[in-house]
């Protein structure tokens, strides 16, 4: 009987251990049910529409951060890039009389430059991504503040194809949704394919697990990391432009603290901070969870400043839970 029970546990537990997003999904369901019971308006079409309006902007950055963390690196400059990209676009349109299309292209090229610098210094100079991207955060945020003198700018608010593609809205029944939600879903599907079914996904996981072993097998580790830094920076800039178009304002302090919130979303979903294990589904769950918590605590009357307490507590719970699951699976 003891052998049978042990065999049953050995068969069942590894499934959970290999799918840390299941634990995250269970906690998400508990969170949603708790807020729905606490306030009947939590699941109302208006409140859900409000949550889904903000969700894609951080979610898009979180998808790229998942790939980067799986490769064993992370980027603390995404919040600053989130602000600088739309600020540059707005200044080029207003002060340099550039067209909105060329201005957006210039903003994206700036993001590519920031990501490339991060990646090259991390991979070629061998400095920790924490130190490199922390320095880049200060540089990029400082540039955004300097060129605007610290004041927000009124961004492009005239109708056109770019505004429609990035921040257009539409209605489905009682719900008002934004095009950015479709971008988030499409990018999540693409990232899932890359991480789970492509050779690049295998390379990313191998680099995060054991970089030297991956290189010995012919994996171009440095090139992969550089392109992941570029992707993360570009998607942070795109998210910033989506936000600026949606609210018709580009602020040099936008995105403050987003770097930590994005990392929290990814870690809560089950991606390992040490690299080698990533899950896009878990990241999507983490994004929904943290946005639901931010919305729910305000709705039920908890001061918004208490949000960090909830986020910190959930991160600790998820880290402990994932660690316990891994140890249990290893023993089994």
Count of β-strands: 2
Helix vs. strand class: mainly alpha
Share in β-strands: under 5%
N-to-C order of helices and strands: HHHHHHHEEHHHHHHH
Q: Count up the helices.
A: 14
User: What distance separates the N and C termini?
Assistant: 16 Å
Share of helix, binned: over 70%
Provide the low-confidence segments as ranges: 1-14
Largest sheet: number of strands, sense, barrel closure: 2 strands, antiparallel
Overall geometric form: globular
List keywords for this structure.
332 residues, mainly alpha, two-stranded antiparallel sheet, 14 helices, globular
Describe the structure in brief.
This protein is mainly alpha-helical. The protein is built from 14 helices and two strands.
Overview of the molecule:
By secondary structure, this protein is mostly helical. It has a two-stranded antiparallel sheet. Helix 12 packs parallel to helix 14. The two termini are 16 Å apart. The N terminus is likely disordered.
């Amino acid at each position: 009987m003891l052998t049978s029970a042990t065999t049953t546990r050995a068969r069942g537990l590894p499934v959970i251990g290999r799918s840390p997003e299941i634990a995250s999904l269970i906690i998400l369901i508990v969170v949603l049910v708790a807020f729905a019971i606490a306030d009947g308006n939590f699941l109302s079409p208006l409140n859900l529409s409000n949550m889904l309006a903000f969700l894609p902007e951080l979610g898009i950055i979180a998808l790229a951060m998942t790939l980067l963390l799986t490769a064993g690196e992370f980027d603390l400059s995404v919040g600053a890039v989130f602000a600088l990209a739309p600020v540059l676009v707005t200044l080029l349109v207003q002060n340099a009389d550039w067209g909105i299309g060329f201005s957006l292209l210039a903003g994206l090229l700036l993001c590519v430059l920031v990501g490339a610098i991060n990646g090259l210094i991390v991979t070629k100079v061998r400095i920790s991504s924490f130190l490199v991207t922390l320095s880049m955060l200060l540089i990029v945020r400082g540039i955004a503040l300097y060129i605007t003198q610290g004041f927000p700018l009124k961004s492009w608010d005239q109708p056109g194809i770019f505004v429609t593609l990035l921040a257009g809205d539409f209605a489905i029944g009682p719900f008002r949704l934004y095009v950015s939600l479709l971008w988030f879903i499409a990018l999540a599907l693409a990232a899932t394919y890359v991480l789970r079914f492509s050779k690049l996904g295998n390379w990313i996981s191998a680099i995060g697990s054991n970089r030297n072993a991956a290189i010995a097998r012919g994996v171009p580790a440095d090139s992969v990391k550089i392109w992941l830094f570029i992707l993360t920076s570009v998607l942070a800039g795109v998210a910033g432009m989506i936000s600026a178009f949606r609210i018709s304002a580009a602020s040099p302090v936008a995105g403050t603290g987003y770097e930590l919130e994005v990392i929290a979303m990814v870690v809560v979903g089950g991606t390992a901070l040490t690299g080698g294990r990533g899950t896009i589904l878990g990241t999507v769950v983490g994004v929904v969870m943290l946005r639901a918590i931010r919305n729910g605590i305000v709705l039920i009357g908890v001061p918004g400043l208490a949000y960090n307490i909830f986020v910190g507590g959930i991160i600790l719970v998820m880290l402990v839970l994932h660690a316990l699951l891994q140890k249990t699976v290893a023993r089994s």
